[in-house]
Amino acid sequence: MFFFGIVALLAVPTPAFGVTSSLQSILRNTHGSKDYGYPTDLTRDLLPVSLCMIFYLESFESSQTRTLLTLESRVDYWRDEPFYTGLSHGCTSTEADVWLYNGTLYVGHDQSALTASRTLESLYINPILDVLERQNPESPFVSKPTKNGVWDTDTEQTLYFFIDVKTSGVETFKAVIAALEPLREKGYLTTVKDGKTITNGPVTVIGTGETPLDLVAPVKDRDYFFDAPLAELTDAKYADITGIVSPVASTDFQKAVGKITRDTDPILGDAQLKALRDQISTANERGIGARYWNTPYFPIRARNLVWRTLLREGVILLNADDLDAVTALF
Ligand SMILES: *[C@@H]1O[C@H](CO)[C@@H](O)[C@H](O)[C@H]1NC(C)=O
User: Fold this and answer.
1) Residue 275's domain spans which residues?
2) Of 11, 14, 48, 325, which residue is least crowded by CB atoms under 10 Å?
3) What's the whole-model pTM score?
4) Which of 99, 100, 102, 112 to mutate to test the pocket of ligand 1 (most atoms within 8 A of CB)?
């Protein structure tokens, strides 16, 4: 604890009020010294927000000027990298919209947003691999290989990586499975064995959008999952799905729960609250976590009340475009 306290203090550029001048001088002189860094300190100041925010490219593109909290000064070339933006806000989940063209997976929220250099590999696979390699160094002090997650403050926390398939499902998802190879090779993915046992890894890949259920559910040994439709879990097609296939199921909040018509507490009407509770408990009984997207973003008061209600009712991931707002609120 003591060690961590020192590290946290050093991360503050000007020593906090109340620190004596002699201690301030020690802090100034030792700041930057190798003795006070450690191999896995890349994410040392970042606390994973357990109820996470999904980060969309749209929101990123409209907020390029936003300061990247903790990582800003060291690495401003990361500004164009959505994965790092989410990471720096403590997001335990990230999402990429992928399009397959001529064998390459490009990333962007629609076709006109695509460029030759913004690929799944360059924007997600390589950066995630780079962070994990830093969190799992080889050194004479490490007695056996580690499988730490991206969070130095919580190495057991997995990063949910939603891959939203936009082009033809079967072909595109097969390309996604192949693209995961660098993470797979290092043992960084959450896996399923014999269709029964889940072994948590630093990254849990969940196919969404056009991802075909048939490419996931029948596969006994795999390292990818399926984002089931949360509001349709009782339909025959999804009746057998458990957390082994879908650790998380999602749905459109406004369609599945309803439009928000007030901004006072309670924010949901009785029928809306019942729908929400039924969906979450159906999921949880099968070991599936619930996630809602398309929650209202305005008025701010209504948005915040919906976020609070979802957290209280037990969603596993909170979807938010305004990462600064959500981290300030919780
Ligand atoms: C795919 O390949 C075809 C044929 O070589 C080419 O005309 C087309 O521009 C390529 N598309 C992209 C997105 O690279």
Assistant:
1) 243-330
2) 14
3) 0.79
4) 102
